[in-house]
Design goal:
Aspartate Aminotransferase, domain 2; alpha/beta; 9 helices; 14 strands
């Protein structure tokens, strides 16, 4: 089958799942007011950091009694900070169905060396039985599996009368999916995901229950300085008012502020979710008329609207060896990238071979639509090359 080469390319061919596409209309000029060369502890620096916290609360609709802090080392730093500071007081239930979730499991068992751990596991494209999570344990899970394209359908499975804490890695869910705050005690995400901010900074959001744990429990292991959130048995309030533990990049802070203000300008959280849903619908409509592609997550109730993972299901390709299928998927993605029509769309290295297309709110549906035309062309070209080689 011959497919004509598309006549146009996406205006913004950035579909990476992190760092993600900048918001529409972004230019470096948007950062001209950054407090460069100034201390983050000076009045101007603290004010900008506090504004970032306040705008985060506003856009994400975080309850007033939850604390929001800017922490080092992206989402990973925020999750590690929570685990090392809070775990050990109760049994732990880990819920994982992709590589990042599995990473938290490894840290709980191999690094913290906790013994009373229950692991709920599912493979790529599926999700564990969430209802079996013990409400009396601390529960660690990802809201949206970035490398599998699988998200939790809701938080109904989390007990309102739970005894343990929930620690939720929401880095590819925040700003694209509605988080159920009363069910979340610790929530983390990074700037470089759903709003396309710059990397290296994480957000840590704590419920009153999480704060109570911090002030009543001291873990048996030493804590690095950048993990310490209490002093003298009390929460260090300044961390959650813009007094960061380490030195942040004020250029990155300015970029995050720009992204948050853009989010407000387009209609806030509801509009951001709608944009991500619209982008994902473009892929769903394409899949419906395209026999060679399918979603990795077959159940649409758990399918991500940000990191959308897809697999090649053409019989001629699925008949190949696993290595040959992986090679085909890489060549397909490379063909699109070579034409400047879509960057960083290959599956994550630990995931099944295929495509991973970011559909968060900073992406335009028209660009996703154009990308699908290039994918059809690239598939035909790559399959033809395979046939010639045979």
């Amino acid at each position: 089958m011959t497919v004509a080469k598309p006549a146009s390319r996406p205006n913004v061919p950035h579909f990476s799942s992190g760092p993600c596409a900048k918001r529409p209309g972004w230019t470096p000029e948007n950062l001209k007011d950054a407090a460069l060369g100034r201390s983050h502890r000076a009045k101007i620096g603290k004010a900008k950091l506090k504004l970032a916290i306040d705008l985060t609360r506003d856009v994400l609709k975080v309850p007033a009694d939850y604390l929001i802090g800017i922490v080092p080392a992206s989402d990973t730093g925020a999750v590690e900070m929570a685990m090392w500071s809070l775990l050990g007081a109760r049994p732990v239930t880990t819920i994982a169905w992709e590589s990042f979730g599995e990473g938290w499991v490894s840290d709980v068992i191999k690094e913290l060396k906790l013994k009373d751990v229950t692991k709920l596991h599912a493979g790529y494209g599926d999700i564990p039985n969430l209802a079996s999570a013990d409400k009396n344990s601390d529960i660690i899970f990802t809201w949206n599996g970035t490398t599998s394209g699988v998200r939790v359908p809701n938080a109904d499975w989390i007990a309102a009368d739970r005894e343990g804490l929930t620690i939720c890695d929401a880095t590819s869910a925040a700003f694209a999916q509605k988080l159920d705050w009363p069910k979340l005690d610790v929530t983390t995400f990074s700037w470089q995901k759903a709003l396309g901010g710059e990397a290296a900074h994480g957000m840590l959001i704590l419920s009153p229950r999480a704060v109570a744990r911090l002030e009543s429990y001291t873990p048996p292991w030493p804590l690095p300085k950048i993990f310490r959130m209490t002093k003298g048995g009390k929460i260090i309030a300044g961390i959650f008012e813009g007094e960061t533990i380490n030195t942040p990049s004020m250029l990155c802070v300015e970029d995050y502020l720009d992204a948050l203000n853009w989010a407000k300008s387009v209609g806030g959280l509801d509009a951001l979710v709608a944009r991500a849903d619209a982008n994902t619908k473009v892929l769903a409509d394409w899949k419906a008329r395209t026999p060679w592609i399918d979603f990795l997550a077959m159940d649409k109730t758990i399918r991500s609207n940000t990191s959308v993972c897809m697999k090649v299901v053409d019989p001629a390709i699925t008949a190949l060896s696993a290595d040959a299928q992986a090679d085909f998927a890489k060549k397909l993605a490379a063909a699109v990238e070579k034409e400047g029509a879509g960057f960083d769309i290959g599956a994550y290295r630990d995931a099944p071979p295929g495509l991973r297309i970011w559909c968060g709110a900073t992406v335009e549906a028209s660009d996703v639509q154009t990308l699908t035309q290039w994918l059809d062309w690239a598939f035909a070209e790559t399959k033809a090359s395979l046939a010639k080689a045979a």
